Every structure is written in structure tokens, then in C-alpha cells.
Amino acid sequence: MKTYLTLIRMDIRLAFRQKVVIFFNYxxxxxxxxxxxxxxxAEQGGAILQVITMVTVIGILGNGxxxxxxxxxxxxxxxxxxxxxxxxxxPLPLLVASTVTxxxxxxxxxxxxxxxxxxxxxxxxxxxxxxxxxxIMLGVVAIRSLGLIIASVVNSxxxxxxxxxxxxxxxxxxxxxxxxxxxxxxxxxxVTQFIPATWLVTGxxxxxxxxxxxxxxxxxxxxxxxxxxxxxxxCVKLFRWxxxxxxxxxxxLWVVAVLLPFVLLGTWQTHAKDNVKKTKILERQxxxxxxxxxxxARIFIGDGRVIENGAVxxxxxxxxxxxxxxxxxxxxxxxxVTEAAGKTILPGLIDTHVHLGVPxxxxxxxxxxxxxxxxxxxxxxxxxSGVTAVRSVGDSLDTSLKIRDTxxxxxxxGAEFFLAGxxxxxxxxxxxxxxxxxxxxxxxxxxxxxxxxxxxxxxxxKAVEGLKLSGVDAIKGIMEAGVGGSLYNRMDPAILDxxxxxxxxxxxxxxxxxxxVRDIExxxxxxxxxxxxxxxxxxxPDAVFEAMAKAGxxxxxxxxxVAAFPQFAAGKLDLLQRSLVQQVAPPKLLASTRRMIExxxxxxxxxxxxxxxxxxAITKDNLFRAWKAGVPLVTGSDAGNMLVFHGPTIQYExxxxxxxxxxxxxxxxxxxxxxxxxxxxxxxxxxxxKGKDATMLVVDGNPxxxxxxxxxxxxxMFKGERVNRAELLKQE
Length: 732
Prior knowledge:
Blueprint: H1 2-17, H2 19-39, H3 47-77, H4 80-85, H5 91-121, H6 129-153, H7 157-174, H8 186-192, H9 196-209, H10 218-238, H11 254-258, H12 260-272, H13 274-288, E1 292-300, E2 306-315, E3 318-324, E4 336-339, E5 343-347, E6 349-354, H14 363-366, H15 371-384, E7 387-392, H16 397-408, E8 416-419, E9 423-424, E10 426-427, H17 430-436, H18 440-447, E11 450-451, H19 457-470, E12 475-478, E13 488-489, H20 493-505, E14 510-513, H21 517-525, E15 530-532, H22 542-551, E16 554-556, H23 559-569, H24 579-584, H25 587-598, H26 603-611, H27 616-628, H28 650-659, H29 664-671, H30 673-678, E17 696-700, E18 713-718, E19 721-722, H31 725-728
Parallel strand pairs: 1-4, 1-5, 6-7, 7-8, 9-11, 12-14, 14-15, 15-16
Antiparallel strand pairs: 1-2, 2-3, 5-17, 10-13, 17-18, 18-19
């Protein structure tokens, strides 16, 4: 032990006497730090976290590959190691001393950098400082062991310099240290999982940004420890005291042995892709952590209030402040500024009634339909259109849960996804024929949208509890018989009561699809939290609306689909001409829909819709009287039906509401705060208020004067991230 301590003390003293050591471990990293900090505007929120990660990993790579690898090769070539050989000293104390010296020299810089980040750039002092320091120390030791093994297998300083440069450059440019790996194609992102620096970057970002523990990064921690141990062991075995001692070229493969833990991790990640997902999520969270001031805009709060000239401060993905008139100077609050004069800020719009797994279109469109890819694209189309949250009320459970995890985690960008899972109903009559006519892939998908209808109250209770355990956000039941009176079999009211009671006990919203007054009354008796559709053909009595208002039951009239059905039956193409529809709907789907509408072969379907007796005047009147009665109103479109394309739904829904006599502020509140309440997510979004997610829509003009201005999207912000709308529909 005395030998170890003596060598360590000597190495540390020598290190701090060398100007080159001070320069490369302190001065140069600080230069990098300030250059990156100024370039990335680190004072504007979470950018400082990205700078810390970049500079730290660059420092670890330099400390290990150049500081250990080149120095060890240089000492052997200059015959310095020969002196230790005659002492005599074994290789292990020298290697341990080199490693400890690297830590002692480098770690003070980390404390210095964190201090500057806190006092100069306003970063909160890390609560998990010990975890950060331990992870960095593991990184230093592992990369130094890699540097030392490189020095052990080369025969000259020249060889060492070449091999170190190759390894250094690969780690520097492929790990996310310098370029975000999200810009790489998927195959290259998979390749990066074989690189130690990638795990340093993602591990450090996770620990700093998400307050993760070492246990949560066990794969990276384990690989770093194994690399350090393997490297140290091989360095002892391959240690050479003099430059005259040569190794065979094949010995350079020992470098791969040191990297073996990361080779194994990369091989596993080729299959699992967990770290690829984590990398995408972390980079998205970094984007969302910026500080931005959107100023000089009209602001619709969400609850009916309007600020005619104000600003919204976004920080760490949240709304930090909402200003009215007295707007601060961006420099005083370290914020990037976005000018929004002449524009209106709205909370993100919400569609509470869609069928995400149904594309609309024709049977031919469904033959090669990839449900997972389509649903991801559709959520991107919603976000593109300023609809930042949707609830799918009838889709395959397994597929929906998979998509929800992918999108809501941030791995893929799209509207926040809420789901009810499969429906409580049974296809019948036309419905059975309709499903049998589908291509097999879509028939199986459609069948997965329906639960086996419970025959007893106990079965109904167990079915709801099963959905709750699966992770659904709501329960959906269908009472009416459907289009033409025979698409579904009407549910037994006693079973509906059991479903409603179970939903209430499990704290799940209970949405009920209704077609007439009898259905609505049964749904209210069952404890429905929302009435979907109401009635398209029957006047709903005022007494029913009064009962809904008293119970706080929401009304979701879905006027979009009410407009679409008669247009389809009449062979009209008006809804295909909407600008947002043409921007987001797949061209193939638009073309096939046009062909079908113009085709004489859809007479049977049109007749069924005609038999359904949809009446827009009655539907609008029901909505108007529901508002007058004080019923909570929410917006939904029934997207997935013919002519109701996923994405630009709510803007047209709002236009129909205003035509029905609903005040614009009431309609907008239904599409924002009220809809968020119906999703039970109003604590996070639905209004422009301090502490909520910075999820908002900025439009040109004033939708309070002309509701069509809600379609003139300037930009969309989602959880603090200014969405690149052009890239949304390109996601795979």
C-alpha cells in the first residue's frame, strides 16, 4: 500500500507541475465550456445541461485517451518506465497511480464547471450531486483504462497517436457529444450503441435532466465497471517497460476485449433498442427545457378570459409566467424571444372523440394498412394541426397501449394520446356483414375494437377492472343501434349500469355513445361522465339537458361527422377541399376517397346513411340548448369515419359550433379547458396558466372575431418544444 500511495502522491505532484496538464484539464475545457455556453445561449434554460454533458464527455475522452494513452506510450518510448523496472516495481501500482491521478486532476474541473453553471448561467444546483460525480468518476476510470490498453498494444508514439485519434473521433462524433444522434438514420443510431461515449452521454443526461439514479443506469454503470476492470487486468498482462519490447499486430485486438461490455450492450440494443428510445426522449426533453418569451400576442386563457396584449414565459417545458401589458425585457429573464404581434395564443386544441385505428377511405386502402405506423402518423397529423391531445374511444387495446407509450414518452412526436380501449358493444346486422367484407388485417383490427358483451353485472365489473389494470384512460359504451338501425345491437341498460358503476369505482371517465333520448336517459342513469353524439335525429328535451347540467355530465355533439355523413351520401367533395386536410391527409387516401364518393357502387352505404335520418338542424339546436342549460360542452369529431380525416378536426368542429349560435369563447373553452377536464388532465394542460405544460397554438389573426383564423397556424408549441411541423409527417 505504501508503494501505491507514494506513486500516487508523486504522480499528482508531477501532474500539477506540468503546464500542459493544467492547460488540457482546466483551461482548454473552460474555453470549450464558455464557447458552447455562449453559442447555445446556456442562460436560456436547459441548454446549460446540454453544454455540461458535451464538455464533460469531451473532457473524459481527452483525459482518458490522450492523458492516459499517449502519456503512457510516451513514457515507455522515452525510457521513463525503465527506471521503475529496476526499482523494482510491478506494473499494477503504476497503472493504479495513473488512474487515480487522472481522477484527482479532472474532478475539480467538474465542480468548477457546475459552480459556473449555477452562478453564471442560473442552473439549479444538482440535488443528486453525489450520483453525478460517481458516474463521471466511473467514466473517467473506464476511458483511462481504454487509453492505457491502447498504450499497451502499440509499438510507438506514432501508432498510439493514430489509434487514439481513431477511437477519439469515433466517440466524439457518433455518441451525441457533438451532434444530436436524433439526426442520424435509425441504422446509425443502432451502431452508436456499441460506443462507450454514447452511454456516457445518455447516462449523464438522464442523471442530470431526469434525476435518475445509478441503479436506473445499471447497464451503463455495469459496462463502465467491466471496462475498467478488464482494461486494468489486460494492461498488467501486456505491460512493457521498454520500447524495444514489441507486440504483434494481432495484439491490438485486445482493445476490442476492453470494449467487450459495450459490444454486448450494443448487440442487445440492436434487439431491444431501449437506449435508442432513451436517447430520443432525452434529446426531446433537452429541447423542451429552453426558456422562451412569446410576446405582444392576444392570449385566450382557456376559461373564457382574454388578454388583449400579453406574453407567455416558457421555462423547462412549463408556463412560468403569463404577463398582461407589463412585459419584461427578455434579457432580464434570460429568455429567447418570439414576436407574436397580430397573433393569438390558444391552449392546444383537444379532440375527445376519435377512432385512431380507423383510416376512413375504402376497403382497398385497408389491404396493406399498417395500423401501428398509421396511428403514429395520425397523432403527428393532429399535432401538425394544433390538436395537441386526442382520446380514442374504440381501438385495439394492445396496439393503442403500444402507441401511447411511444408517443407520450417523447420517443415519437405526436399529440398526447388518451385511450378507452375496446368498446362495450356487439356488432349486429349490417355491422356483421360490414366486418366480414373487410380485408383480414383490418377485420382482425376491427374485431379487436370490441369487447365480448358481458352477460351479467359481475362479468361487466370484471371487464372494466381488467381494462383499468391494462392502463386505459376511460371506458366507452355504445347504447344505440347505429347507422341504419342495425350496425350494433343495443346494450341491456342493466349491463350499462354495471359498467358505469365499475368505471366510477375505478375512477375512470365513462363515455357513452347515444342515438336518441332513451339512450341518453339510460346513460345518465348508469353514471356516464359524457354523452357522445347525443342525437343526430331527435330533439333532446330541455329536462334531459337540465339533468346533465346538474350532474356535470359533458355533452360532445361531434358535429363534424354530422356534416360528413350527408355530404358523403350526397356525393359532395367539400370537406376534401379544406387546406389543412390537403396538407396532412395521405394523397393516396384523398384520391381513393374522391373515387369512392364519385363511384356509383356505394349506393347501399349511402342508403344506410340516408335511412339514419341525420339532421344537422336538429343537432345544432340540441347543442345550442345544451349550452343554454349550462351543460359542460366538449369537442370531438368522430375522426376515422368517412370524410373526417385525422388531424385538422377541431377547427372545423368549432366553425360548425359558431354556426349553431355558440359564442366563440364558449366554443374555444370547450375545445381546451373543458376538454382537458373531461380527460381529467386539466391540472397539466387546457389553459394558459402558470405551472401548466407549455402546450399551445399560435395562430395568425384573431379567431375570437373569425373562428376560421384558428386554421391559420403560425406555430405549435408542445410541452415547451417548438414543433417542427414539416418533419412531423415524415416520421416512420
